[in-house]
Design a protein that fits this description.
Length: 222
Amino acid sequence: MKRSAQHETLVIGGDQRLDLLPPEVRAERRGQKYRRRLTFGVIGVGVVVALGIGSVSTLALTAQVALAGEQARTATLLTEQGKYFEVRALQNQVTLTQAAQRVGASTEIDWKTYLDAVQNTLPTSVAITTVQIDSSTPLDPYTQATAPLQGLRVATVTFTATSNVLPDIPAWLRGLGTLNGFADALPGSVILAEDTGLYTVTIIMHVNESAYAHRFDPTEKK
């Protein structure tokens, strides 16, 4: 049988060390080393946590200061607003009054100006002697015609005109048709007064909403 050759390394001049400590002592030393590391780790974590808590506390304090400032500013604004309460109440009253004016005058027609315009459409030999007006109100819509081909109306003007010559009724109606707000017109019979020699004609004219004055309307029509 052949034996395997064993090679051994011979260290010449090396230090000869012999550890005579018991295993328990070595284990205790290793434990102390681990405990020191653990202690340092815990201290490090504690420092990090303390820094985090300090940062959060600083942010919270800053937020509280800002909140207190905003609350003080809000209280100041409310105090200032209270000084103008009467002004706001007056402004509201003015707005309400203006709205009431617009509603109340929504069906207003300047009849003086309108009747002057009616007179101006007639020949110079014609004079209006009587006028009767029936118009709508904001609370009472005007009654519309039931006959076909008659337009919407908001008022009726019945006037009597006299002329010293035989009236040209079609020409009168064409002149009335140029008026703003003219809807239609119906002429009556022509009557000649023997004692005065004057012709009398009664005309019923209907007016539409284009004749409204819009006196208090913000978009007043000119």
